[in-house]
Design goal:
Layout lengths: L11 E2 L7 H4 L17 H33 L12 H4 L3 E2 L4 E2 L11 H6 L4 E5 L3 H9 L6 E6 L3 E3 L4 H6 L8 E3 H5 L5 E11 L4 E6 L10 E5 L2 E4 L4 E2 L16 H18 L6 H7 L1 E5 L3 H21 L2 H6 L1 E5 L11 H13 L3 E3 L2 E7 L2 E7 L5 E7 L2 E4 L3 E2 L2 H9 L9 E3 L13 E3 L4 E3 L7 H8 L7 E2 H14 L10 H8 L6 E2 L1 H14 L7 H20 L1 H6 L6 H7 L10 E4 L4 E4 L4 E4 L1 H13 L4 H16 L6 E3 L5 E3 L11 E2 L1
Helix pairs in contact: 5-18, 8-9, 14-15
């Protein structure tokens, strides 16, 4: 979706007649009394003080009373004694190809009658805890399935705002929501583990439990399933570049915290008097490899952080020596957006003195520099180096180890970046109706010609081996039902038929049909790997699975007990509705709504904020995000934290911005 994002820093302009001049230009000495040049300037402030004097005690009293009532009705003595636990949960049996423990029952399966009833339902296992998984959890109806979420993290993350968290614009707690809390509505379970393998013939998912000892120290177990949904996301594509161990990526809260730590450490080292000018410039050189939304927004956030915070609390020479570089392989940044947006973002970055290097390829990343090549307009290739102590790698996606393993087990899985699924999100080659994949881990097939024989068999009414125009119209409807993404390529039905009817006999032979369907498939654009797509797929799949569960008896009465017919009987194929893409580019935002674009400063930023605020997972994260933004506006002191290498928490220096020449953040 929602690309897939990203905090915002808003500037507010107060006309000079509305605030006293000492507020717009604060005195250098706190002991010097302010000089009021215009009495009319005080009127709005007086009105504010009257309001504050009247409302603050009442507001505080109401808040205190609300908290008291909450505590009074929440803090009760609850005694838990002799909770029933299934023996199979305590002592699971072994089996499967590797003779591992098979977890058929979980600790809470029979702790109350409702859980015991749900434990007898079909077991739905969701692998992953991102946008797709949350979409399923929020759209499933309670009581339809025995739900287990397998995820190495205990929370879901609002990924679009990770660049904001990386520089402290918003706190990390505002972007996370516990998966157990989301799954509680379904009386679902969370298994903190990482999927490593699958045995489809026995419907067993092999996972490695997360151990305090670290990766590789957990126990391997089997989790049986009736339906499995793969929603594990993706990893960053390496493109064969060496030295990526020296780079950061930005996909998790841990990544944002690590980036935050490196940025602060670099500035602290640069501020030391013993640091040489050359070393200071290297420490304050920030390189972003990739000109997509994540790379562009991170570069913009770093610029804002340097421009509006670092300049206030560090030696000015540190701000002077800062350089930000964006290396993009294409000719423009944000190349998936409209041309107008790309050019607007490039102009904004050039005004901000952010170095844009386009038509370039990173050759290797060394501990102290990045080596890249640039294709010049005259066709030559030049090699350049950028000294740096910070490199963000954001250059596309690739399969993670589990999706690679699943793909290797199935025939006809030839896609290099994701698992191929059909229009119903069923994994191609897997037992039909048992394994689904959504989000970045999957891609919907676009090959129409692979259905050639089935389409001919269903469309060729007179069985003459040819398709006349009436039969072609039937085939077009079949294609649209199987692959909805092909609809835009099938609008001119008659024109297509005449174009590929090479012998003008008012019929299409198999050879002519093959060429036609291949051309249609080549023109279909795959869905982007964004949070918006994953969320819509999760919601679609959750609704469909609930229909399958509730109509199981009706389907069985009609002879449909499984296989491909069940999904088609209760739901149409997945259809993606593009709601637009957006990006933050440093005190400005851009919106690409398909046929129209919207870009600008304050208004665009408010729209940007509103969209991301409304898309928050819960009311808790909405409130926390609003508090973060209010803190930035009101100027109250804030302290950001990042994760230290020794697992300690170190406060950052990001404090409240001050009023500067009438501008207030």
């Amino acid at each position: 979706m929602l690309a897939a994002a990203r905090g915002m820093q808003v500037l507010y302009r107060f006309p000079s007649r509305h605030i006293p001049l000492w507020f717009a230009h604060p005195p250098h000495s706190h002991s010097t009394p302010p000089v009021l040049h215009n009495k009319t300037c005080l009127r709005p402030l007086h009105r504010w003080h009257y309001f504050e004097d009247a409302s603050s005690p009442l507001t505080r009293a109401l808040i205190t009373a609300g908290i008291f009532l909450h505590d009074a009705f929440t803090y009760t003595d609850r005694h838990i004694d002799r909770v029933p636990v299934s023996p199979l949960a305590l002592h699971p049996g072994r089996g499967g190809p590797k003779n591992l423990p098979i977890v058929e029952r979980l600790l809470s399966d029979i702790e109350d009658p409702e859980n015991a009833k749900i434990a007898e339902k079909p077991h739905l296992v969701i692998v992953g805890g991102g946008w797709g998984a949350v979409g399923i959890l929020k759209s499933l109806r309670p009581g339809d399935y025995h739900v287990t979420v397998v995820s190495p993290e205990t929370y879901t993350t609002f990924t679009p705002l990770l660049p904001s968290a990386a520089v402290g614009t918003v706190s990390v707690r505002s972007l996370v929501e516990p998966l157990r809390k989301i799954a509680a509505r379904l009386r679902g379970h969370l298994m903190c583990a990482r999927a490593v393998d699958i045995v489809m013939s026995e419907r067993l998912l092999e996972v490695e439990t997360i151990s305090p000892g670290g990766p590789g120290k957990g126990e391997h177990i089997y989790v049986p399933y009736d339906k499995l949904i793969i929603a594990v996301g993706s990893t960053s594509s390496t493109h064969g570049v060496s030295g990526l161990e020296h780079c950061f990526q930005l996909k998790t809260i841990g990544d944002a915290q690590a980036i935050r730590k490196r940025i602060i450490d670099n500035f602290e080292a640069a501020a030391l008097p013993t640091t040489t000018p050359e070393e200071r410039r290297r420490l304050l050189s920030f390189v972003v490899c990739g000109g997509g939304p994540t790379g562009v927004e991170t570069a913009a956030e770093i610029f804002d952080f340097c421009q509006e915070d670092i300049i206030n609390y560090y030696p000015k020479v540190c701000r002077e020596d800062v350089s930000i570089h964006v290396i993009q392989s294409r000719e423009h940044i944000l190349n998936t957006y409209s041309e107008a947006i790309s050019r607007y973002a490039e102009k904004k970055f050039m005004n901000d003195r952010i170095d844009l290097v386009t038509s370039a390829r990173v050759g290797k990343v060394l501990p102290d520099r990045v080596v890249y090549t640039v294709h010049t307009p005259d066709g030559t290739i030049e090699t350049h180096e950028v000294p740096t102590n910070f490199v963000l790698w954001s250059t596309g996606i690739a399969m993670n180890p589990f999706t690679q393993r699943v793909s290797s087990l199935l025939p006809n899985q030839v896609h290099k970046k994701a698992i191929e699924v059909d229009a119903h999100l069923r994994v191609k080659g897997a037992p039909t109706g048992e394994v689904y994949a959504i989000g970045d881990a999957s891609t919907i097939e676009t090959s129409v010609v692979s259905y050639l024989l089935d389409l001919v068999d269903e469309s060729d009414k007179n069985k003459d081996g040819k398709i006349d125009f009436d039969e072609w119209r039937v085939m077009v409807n079949l294609i649209k039902r199987r692959i909805p993404m092909a609809e835009s390529q099938l609008e001119e039905v008659r024109e297509l038929f005449d174009l590929y009817d090479s012998d003008a006999d008012n019929s299409l032979t198999l050879n002519e049909l093959t060429v036609l369907l291949q051309e249609i498939g080549n023109k279909i654009t795959a869905l982007p790997a964004t949070a918006q797509v994953a969320a819509q797929q999760g919601e679609y799949l959750g609704r469909k699975l609930s229909k399958l569960a509730r109509q199981r008896g009706t389907l069985a009465a009609n002879g449909i007990t499984g296989g491909p017919g069940a999904d088609e009987a209760v739901s149409g194929p997945f259809r993606y509705f593009h709601l637009g893409t957006l990006a933050y580019i440093g005190n400005a935002a851009v919106f690409d709504l398909g046929r129209t674009s919207f870009m600008g400063g304050l208004a665009a930023m408010y729209a940007w904020r509103s969209v991301y605020w409304s898309e928050q997972v819960s009311s808790r994260t909405r409130a926390l995000l609003m508090i973060d933004w209010i803190i930035r506006v009101c100027g109250a002191a804030t302290y950001r934290v990042y994760e230290h290498e020794n697992c300690g928490l170190v406060p950052s220096v990001r404090s409240a911005p001050k009023a500067r020449h009438g501008w207030f953040r």
